[in-house]
Amino acid sequence: MIETVAFYILDMIYSVIPGGSMQHIEKIESELKKIRRWHLVPGKNNILKSLEQIIKKHEAIHSVIDGFFTPGDDNCKSDMQSSGVLIITSERGLFIRSDNPSEYLSVDAGDMRGISFTRGYAGLKLNIEADGERCCFVTHASEAEIRNIIGADVVTEDLDGKPQAPPSGQREALKPAPPVIPVPPEPEAPAPRNEIAAETKGEAETDAEESEVEQETIEEVMEAINKLIGMKKVKDEINSYINFIKIRKERENRGLPVTPLSLHAVFYGPPGTGKTTIARLVGRVYKALGLLAKGHLVETDRAGLVAGYVGQTAVKTDELVQSAVDGVLFIDEAYSLIPEHEGNDFGREAVDTILKRMEDMRNRFAVIVGGYPDEMERFINANPGLKSRFSRYFYFDHYNPEELMAIFNIFVNDVRFVLEEEAVRKAQDLFGYFYARRDRSFGNGRFSRNVFEKIVQNQADRLSSLRELNDELLCGIKPEDIPEVSDFSDEQFA
Q1: d(Cα 138, Cα 119) in Å, to the nearest integer?
Q2: pLDDT tens digit string along 399-455?
Q3: Which of 52, 190, 273, 462 sits at 20 to 30 Å (Cα–Cα) from 304?
Q4: Strand, helix or coil at 138?
Q5: CA torsion angle for 8, 10, 11, 14 (degrees, to 10)?
Q6: Quick one: CA torsion of 377, 379, 381, 387, rounded to 10 degrees?
Q7: Is the pTM of this model over 0.85?
Q8: How far is CA 300 from CA 370, 429, 445, 478, in A?
Q9: Which domains are seen in the chain, by residue range?
Q10: Measured between alpha carbons, how far is 187 from 328 in angstroms, rounded to an integer?
């Protein structure tokens, strides 16, 4: 059952046992450090502190799987989803939330039978119901890895919800596997992709050529949004915005007066923080809510709007706007359209053209502008038309070291790399170092990509002298493969 522990009472009990609490936490920490995936878990310190109270003194920790935990829901549809961890012990399975470790689901070994898996684009879903309590756990770990750890009589469903027969020779429920040298599992399905990672890879360019975004419910879109790494404040603001739209629509259906609705928004914050990804998802939100017919994204910047001769900019901009009708036009670094210093510049012609189309084709497309905070404030205030049409502002903050590591792990899992324990620690230290010294140009997700690319090159240099290679060598990452601080120039840092 889901339990909330009165930690302060237990702390008092432990405090009167000489050395008891210290020995217990050291034992837990020692067991966790031996498990590779523990180093991938966000919020480890909070979870570790809670485990001191949750784990019994005679209870041994065998395995850890990182993912997303949704209590009270066996289909991962709840908006309460947060990062979490599945910990297999000698007695039970613990599903723990990273942001609130005091809220967890404890499933006894005998109750772990009959768990269902569903393969989805967000990852592998574990749908659990035990002793009347429900939860859903989504992980990027492979099905083979999960089966090896849980060993439950599992039914697997494909993306259409059709059951697939479990493999033969099922093991007893919750029979923990002994510690093994980590080797990359055989892929059973294409690895799930995180949209932020895709954006940092330069793969999220534009879907203007697509006629339509696939039809989906608002719950499905929000599920995709909530699974993104970090961005808690942005997620909360989008959820609040959706609530406003829903209530407004209900009032409209009942013939009640409604407040004006603007589809346009300002995204401001440092680079590499997922602004393009969220703009694409906002388009899907608008389509799911019936506000836009297609919901596709057209991404551009100054170069895509401004021409080199008088009179051509308006034509070029208008063509781009037409391609965004029934969808979203995302203008990155929009402030470059209005230079800080006055003078003749074709960028202002582009802005005037966009403003006219926003009025002429009201509610036919959305304009989202993005860039650095100070520059975006100057941009919006430079033209009264801009200030009146943009009423929604979303701030994208830097990713913290744990989030940078989580994005990095997506790149790692995509190519089935396995990092040695010391390599994991070295990578964590690297992200912590640069995060502490970040400025507004810090690349965030792009920096995670840069670290990964350097690791790929360093490993290739190390392996090139070997005569014989095998899968374990090709997938293994050693501490010496992790780049040093001095390997990053100012340009690469951004």
Answers
A1: 10
A2: 999 999 999 999 999 999 999 999 999 999 999 999 999 998 899 999 999 999 999
A3: 273
A4: strand
A5: 170
A6: -100
A7: no
A8: 11, 36, 20, 40
A9: 2-164 (2.30.29.30), 195-395 (3.40.50.300), 401-493 (1.10.8.60)
A10: 36
